Amino acid sequence: AKVAGKNCYRFYSRAMDQAVERRVRLEQELRGAWERGELSLVYQPVFRLSDSRIVGAEALLRWQHPEMGMVAPSVFIDVAEQSGLIEAIGPRVLRAACAAAARWSIGSDPLDQLFVSVNVSPRQLRSGDLPEMVAECLRETGLAASRLHLELTETAVISDEAHASALLATLHRSGVKVWLDDFGTGFSGLSHLRRVPVDGVKIDRSFIADMLRDPDDLALTTAIIAMAHSLGITVVAEGVEKEGQFNILRERGCDLAQGYWLGYPVTAAEFAQLVT
Ligand code: C2E
Ligand code: CA
Ligand code: CA
Ligand code: CA
């Protein structure tokens, strides 16, 4: 038993070493990845449920490494966040997304101007110079503030509510819209919505995934929609993979939706084709 225990220990420690090695490698490779052209953005269309029209897109980062292939964002965003590399990558993502959206203007009706939604990591939120960086990107690209949406995770905002509230208030005054991402997973409850100035919540896709077979998830989704609307907040459902989900969400008055059933993330050029 002793020997087995020892082997076991060695096995786990080797596995842990490998995990650490992989992270170190990813961090090294991620440094300079943008300059080498390995990082790019794709855009997933966001639909308005009342008329099924595309009203904007979420920018999602992709990393195509020459040897490792596609690295999942859930993996490399975490590495970027832990290592601080996100502070270099984040502003580039924001600038690229604003530049792309500035070219999407369709027609002259200001209501027809599509928005671009950009993910902001907890570290970027803490760094403090976010409002300035955002203002600079808008100035440089000529994108109207109202067409930029920032997605912040519910947990990042709640973990430092005082700081986040002040920051969000500044962004809000500048005309930029703020959405809480992965909403419902932080167990924060809806009470925070009264104290933090947000324009919208994105219901986490885990609730949407189970909505058709789990009455609890359907009840929760319905409650989020009703509560958000009573506070004048827009509701986005993400991860819509089935027509049935789409129909229920529309019936319950959800405002916007995105997901594979509606549209996969595509390049900026492909997205422009979709909307013209
Ligand atoms: P997220 O912000 O929740 O983004 C939505 C994720 O759901 C994306 O995964 C998207 O491709 C995926 N998705 C969209 N529709 C469906 C669907 O119908 N079914 C399923 N199963 N998935 C769907 P992706 O692109 O792998 O990104 C993962 C996470 O990485 C994002 O989650 C976000 O937290 C982070 N991320 C991606 N790009 C950026 C970025 O530029 N900056 C930061 N800070 N984080 C990013
Ligand atoms: Ca997001
Ligand atoms: Ca999300
Ligand atoms: Ca469930």
From TrEMBL:
It is found in: Cell membrane. Keywords: Cell membrane, Membrane, Transmembrane, Transmembrane helix. The keyword Protein biosynthesis does not apply. This is Diguanylate cyclase/phosphodiesterase. The chain holds residues 431 to 706 of 706 of the full protein. The keyword Magnesium does not apply. One of its GO terms (biological process) is signal transduction. Its main location: membrane. One of its GO terms (cellular component) is plasma membrane. Residues 23-276 form the EAL domain.
